[in-house]
Amino acid sequence: MFNIIVGALLPIYVGLLIGYVAGKRGMVDNQNVKTINVMLMTFMVPLTMFIAIARTPRDVIIPNLTLILVIGVSMLILYLASLWIQQKVFKLSLAEGVVQSLTIAFPNYASIGIPLTLPLFGDQAALLVAIAIAAGSIFVTPIALAQLAMGTSAPDEEVSVKKEFIKGLIGAVKTPVFFLPVIGLIWAIIGIPMPKLAATAFQPITMATGGVGLFLTGLLLSAQKIKINTNVSVSTLLSNVIQPLLTFGIAVLIGINHEAVVQAVILMAIPSAFFGLVFGATVNVRPAVSGATLLVSSLIGIITISVFLGWLVP
């Protein structure tokens, strides 16, 4: 099992390292990353989410709506709690807090999801990862995008916080990274078969999403000074330990079956993702603490995932 975990996490380290070296050596401009970011967040990530969710059979989606609820609520609670901690305790701005909280609350399904869950859950692995992505896209993404828009817009004393949030939310739901996963979920629930030709046509893009995301993250890290501080330590604890425990509590409280509890906890024990950093890059918000958190969370993940697997999967 240890080899499986290391094998699932190893691509993260390699992808980050390649991007980091490319940025440090000046092979790729690590300051002007807008083009790569647009490619990733406007096309690659939304299309990957849409295909993954839309291909999920209806008879799998419907029984697992409670699993979507458990994962989505867990992500949302941790995201909001992390945002409060980032602003009140560590004094980050709203935009920086959003980026950091997304880094904490949204696990790295794009790169780790399938390699980690396939040996554990077999043919269900891809479906479970799609369900987890759908949960994050619906429960967390629109709120985070709205708050990111609020945090980077020019202050207007005449506009209330509520109106600013609603304005940001309207803008968020228009972005492909939100509406394409939602369309994918509706597609799956209605039961429309996904043409094999469509999945084949988008396969080169969807398969490259995780790698491009990690390369871009490494590129962003190369422009920052990596520093391990109290915030990084607390954030890693929240992501790697508190989130799966929170998910376990919510799952038991709702009363889902034991197999679903195990699936939810393992999915939420996956380390931090690059989504926070690439979301922030769209508005030029790149807190160094997010890069350090991603790095430490991924390294510590070897230990924390092993512990949760030892507890739940004898």
UniProtKB/TrEMBL annotation:
Keyword Membrane: yes
Topology in the lipid bilayer: Multi-pass membrane protein
Keywords: Cell membrane, Membrane, Transmembrane, Transmembrane helix, Transport
GO biological process, one term: transmembrane transport
TM stretches of this protein: 6-23, 35-54, 60-85, 97-118, 124-148, 169-190, 202-222, 234-254, 260-280, 292-313
UniProt GO cellular component terms: membrane
InterPro entries: Mem_transp_PIN-like
Cell compartment(s), UniProt: Membrane
PANTHER family linked: AUXIN EFFLUX CARRIER FAMILY PROTEIN, SLR1864 PROTEIN
Official protein name in the record: Transporter
Source organism (scientific name): Psychrobacter sanguinis
